[in-house]
């Protein structure tokens, strides 16, 4: 009996509390080297993809700012906001804002996070997630001899679906988009529009085994070596749809 295609994700235990100035590659190397796979093997292998929650990247990069009250939290959100897409009043008070932040990402509250941070603070997204991914990739390669793909992920809602999923906001050494246009399906039909968001799908798969409540902010995905590249690539910034292609750019606040 022939085997099928398989993708495996493992979220190792033991990631310590990350604070400002930590070298994430150094912090994560012993954790990743201790990861145990279903077949009994351990550590990283060529073709693996390391998916890291943006929160610990932001903490290492000192992206904590004051958030002692609603006014300070709103100020942090406004500072990260480029464009308000939609807003509505929350039942408990205050406003829920969906905005485009300075990274070009459309997210609730500009991605500013008040969970799992010291009281009186909020956490901003990494300043340049693609650059962060490149630095972590270099550091892991230097320490392990393996050059994995690296994805920095964050959680976001979806306008037509309930529930949140993780997506890639930073990437290095990963083909973030798989353009199938021009290829033919099994019936000979030429694909006209199919471009797969590979990095987002990998980030979402990794989130199934990691998460803030489990204390496992990092996962390794194996079985996607076809998406791992020698060079760092264009990064996750290339996933942001340019304005001229965005059919839904105008939000409720603009209509």
TrEMBL record:
> What is the protein name stated in its UniProt record?
Coenzyme F420-0:L-glutamate ligase
| Coenzyme F420:L-glutamate ligase-like domain residues | 15-223
The UniProt record lists the EC number as 6.3.2.31
**Which GO-annotated molecular functions does the record name?**
coenzyme F420-0:L-glutamate ligase activity
The reply on keyword Manganese is yes
- According to the entry, what is the taxonomic lineage of the organism? Bacteria, Bacillati, Actinomycetota, Actinomycetes, Micrococcales
Q: What class of enzyme is it?
A: ligase
Instruction: Give a Pfam family name.
Output: F420_ligase
Organism, as annotated: Georgenia deserti
User: Keywords for this entry?
Assistant: GTP-binding, Ligase, Magnesium, Manganese, Metal-binding, Nucleotide-binding, Potassium
Signal peptide limits: none
Q: Which domain of life is it from?
A: Bacteria
Determine if Magnesium is one of this entry's keywords.
Answer: yes
């Amino acid at each position: 009996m022939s085997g099928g295609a398989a993708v495996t994700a493992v979220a190792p235990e033991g990631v310590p509390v990350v604070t400002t100035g930590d070298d994430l590659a150094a912090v994560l190397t012993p954790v990743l080297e201790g990861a145990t796979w279903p077949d009994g093997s351990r550590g990283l292998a060529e073709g693996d993809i390391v998916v890291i929650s943006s929160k610990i990247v932001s903490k290492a990069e000192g992206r904590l700012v004051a958030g002692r009250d609603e006014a300070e939290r709103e100020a942090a959100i406004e500072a990260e906001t480029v464009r308000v897409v939609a807003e509505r009043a929350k039942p408990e008070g205050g406003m829920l804002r969906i905005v485009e932040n300075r990274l070009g990402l459309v997210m609730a509250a500009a991605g500013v996070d008040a969970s799992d941070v010291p009281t009186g603070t909020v956490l901003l997204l990494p300043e340049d997630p693609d650059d962060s991914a490149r630095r972590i990739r270099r550091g892991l390669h230097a320490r392990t001899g393996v050059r994995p793909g690296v994805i920095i992920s964050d959680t976001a809602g979806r306008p037509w679906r309930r529930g949140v999923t993780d997506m890639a906001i930073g990437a290095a050494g990963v083909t973030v988009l798989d353009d199938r246009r021009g290829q033919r399906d099994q019936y000979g039909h030429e694909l006209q529009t199919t471009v797969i968001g590979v990095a987002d799908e990998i980030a979402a798969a990794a989130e199934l085994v990691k998460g803030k409540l489990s204390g496992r902010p990092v996962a390794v995905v194996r079985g996607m070596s076809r998406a791992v590249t020698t060079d760092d690539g264009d990064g996750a910034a290339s996933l942001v749809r340019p304005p001229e292609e965005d059919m839904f750019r105008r939000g409720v606040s603009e209509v």
